[in-house]
Amino acid sequence: MIEFILNGVQQQLEIESDTPLLWVVREEIGLTGSKFGCGKGLCGACTMHVDGVASRTCILPVSAVAGKSVTTIEGISEQAQHPVQQAWMEFNVPQCGYCQSGQIMSAIALLEQNPQPSDDDINQFMSGNICRCGTYPRIRQAIHWAAESLTKDETQTRVKKAGIGSASESS
Amino acid sequence: MTSINRRQFVKGSTTVAGGFALGFGLTGCAQPPYPATKTGAFQPNAFIQIAPDNSIIFQVFRAEVGQGVSTALPMILAEELEVDPALIQVEMSGVHPAYNDPQYNVMITGGSASIAGAWDILREAGAITRQALVNAAAIQWGVSSSECRAVSGQVVAESIGKRLNYGELADAARKLPLPTQVALKPAADFKVIGTEVNRLDLLDKVTGKTQYSMDINIAGGAEQVNEPEEHATKVAVVVRNPELGGGVAAFNAAAALEQTGVSEVFEIPAGVAVVADSYWHARKAADNLQVEWQAGSLAQFSTAAMRQRMDKLMSSDAGKNVRDDKQSATLDPAITKALEAEYYVPHLAHGQLEPSNCLIWFREEHGEAVCDMWLPNQGPDLCQKRAAQLLGLPLERVNIHSTWVGSSFGRRLNQDHLEEAAYIALGMKTAQPLRLMWSREDDTRHDFYRPAMLARLRAELSADDVWRWQHKLVGPSISQQQIPLTIKSIAPTWVPELLPDLVGKVMAKKDFSSLEGSVDMPYQIANIKVDYALLETDVPIGYWRSVGHSHSGFVVESFIDEVAHALGHDSIEFRRQRLQQHPRHLAVLQLVAEKAAWGQSLPAGRFHGVAVHEAFDTVVAEVAEVSVHEKEIRVHKVTAAVHCGQVINPLIVKQQIESGILVALAQTLYSEITFDKGQVQQSNFHDYRVVRMNESPEIEVHIVPSTAAPTGVGEPGTPPLAPAVANAVFASTGQRLRSLPLRLA
Q1: Most buried pick, A73, A148, B89, B632, via CB within 10 A?
Q2: What predicted TM-score, i.e. pTM, was given to this entire model?
Q3: Which of B198, B353, B699 sits opposite A132 (nearest CB)?
Q4: Nearest CB to B208; choose among A29, A33, A95
Q5: First to last CA, chain B
Q6: B222 touches A: beta carbon within 8 Å
Q7: Would you say the C-alpha torsion A74, A79, A85, A88 has a positive or negative sign?
Q8: CB B45 within 8 A of CB B125
Q9: What is the pLDDT of residues B458-488, one digit of tens each?
Q10: Are strands B453-461 and B337-345 parallel, antiparallel or unpaired?
Q11: What one-character DSSP code corresponds to residue B570?
Q12: Shortest CA distance to A54 belongs to which of A7, A113, A2?
């Protein structure tokens, strides 16, 4: 029996402990926003937060998240209210969109640990998320814009109050 | 010369050079009803409908692979319909002859042709719909139609102070005959076309809501999770011979069948299918499968051996002449120098981020066999026909659901995922829904590759000009493989197998998908000769973003740069002088030179390279700003100028040129597929490298304003990038790199 919290909801699953978290979330639980791109942790399409840390879940056995808190793209904001999601729309980042759940989860994790990242910081942190459609220049702009937005007090308050994002404790 | 390119893909299916038609129609005689009708809606055409609740619903009839057709197509119609495009709801369309591309006569997404093909049709459809609503209001109010006008989703008659929204007029409009003659807006009146409208799919794509085909869950007709066991969706993976073209000699499923969740293991043409209750269970079981492989025709194939065969063909007289221009009667300048060079590009995998997959539900309903399939595809009518063939069903009982696609670059033009899913469904003991899943390794190793091509060029120079340009290409023909596949899938069963292969062979010798951009290279040079020698191959090859232009751009734009340099000319000026008959080329060269500050000093260590190329009627010029550190090539910035006629949405045009550049950058610096002992040597993104964030340049796209008919932008950003970078590397190092990916000595 594996127990963990997913988007604020307690999970109790009878499942083989070596099952990658990606497949547990997609097939057992049924949340399909996190994607399968490579199965080897190389493309980042499967990125979720585990206790706030961006993780490649296609190679993360579910046993590794026992007792932890996992957040997927579905747990950020259904109406795209997180400043990173707002930034993504402001700059028309997505093309095919397949990598974008992973990109957004990585970007949110980046800004939580580094609220004012430089271009180099962004490049390094985001280098694990492949986009074949080539949205990288827009992602860079969007992350800078979201960083600006997040430094504003009113944005921080709104984000916390609405329980948007993995940093929040409210369910 | 018009760029024929991929139009040969299907045109060749119905007529063959030499004039005999194959004699069967691609579309039915009677017009079927428009699909996806909402209750009570006014549906004057297959594209748009107005529901009584004022919903405006558009059928997206081309594959949305990221290129933005799901926004740009409704924008065209919205202009004439006088509605805000942001209010339009879009659905992926079903199959209907009204959705056929006017050139190809099938519902294909490709050749960067979606907007160009739909431009007239959608404007007319929008105008007729608008006029029908105006007429309905006029009749209702007892005034003449000329006293009414459509504005922002309403019909208004100011003279009598009345207004109704389109939904309120839907019922009345349904009962009236449609207007047959409508005037279309002049470009000066456009309010939507040419404006930066936010993509309509943004919200779903930033919240994880977009449903790609592997996200779709079905159970007994309802979409739900945790379905009862008898309706539960099975998941299958296929274990494939690592040698291309090989088969299965024998297999032992005992260990695989003991694994948790596995229900069946059986052979299909592509390999051995393992069917289980989840992807992980299927994948684990597949790892326990023991298979004895059977060697096929490619068992000894290697890239090294292929290069030798290419070299032999290049040096021999083999091949056909495909162009021989003598633009001046006498050709007797003092030739002082000949330049010769060979260029090579390798095979490439598509690397589309969503792996191949297909969901199929083949079962009985009311005593009749019926099938639904959900899959990423670029031709739902071709899919429907192929599925019907394989499953032995009439067309009307095969429902193809086109889904949002996680990029393609031409990958989804093939139907291998559909075929495998059909064979598995046929072989399964139960009639449960079945999700076929490919791994990244499957996709890398069992692709339809961009073909490797070898080119030899020779230019003869006098002291101040180039007089002769000779270009010989050696490589396989995409048409030779792909056209027979298409014909087989759409031909009635009585057409003998031999015939599609014959058509393929005839097409192969002058295959424009190999020659585009080479045979029609635009520079004015006194004598131009182009030859093509076909390399026979069994390696599966297919369409990769910009197809023949993906190599001809690199070859032609690098060699013209070599010529310019040999004559001591500036790269842009040299091209300009020889493109005087090509105003679009001149326009983009001028714009890119200005915006990239060509000729002005750059920071130390940085160099510019330029290239201009026309693909699918669109012309793009790019300047790459590059530096070289030891053996590492860094691309800091790419400035692009594009001429694509009337722009629908500048934002989407810019996105597509950015995209074309970044896909090209991967093949320029990193990607290659190589073969040894019949096997692809690469497997995943660690050894089939693509561009990552920390390797991606700043990109600036500038658009030449135009009101000419729109041309496509999905692919044209790709061809100029490799030569622009290679030319910059030359400027920086003096090394002329003539193979992709670029590797400094």
Answers
A1: A73
A2: 0.94
A3: B353
A4: A33
A5: 39
A6: no
A7: positive
A8: yes
A9: 999 999 999 999 999 999 999 888 888 777 7
A10: antiparallel
A11: -
A12: A113
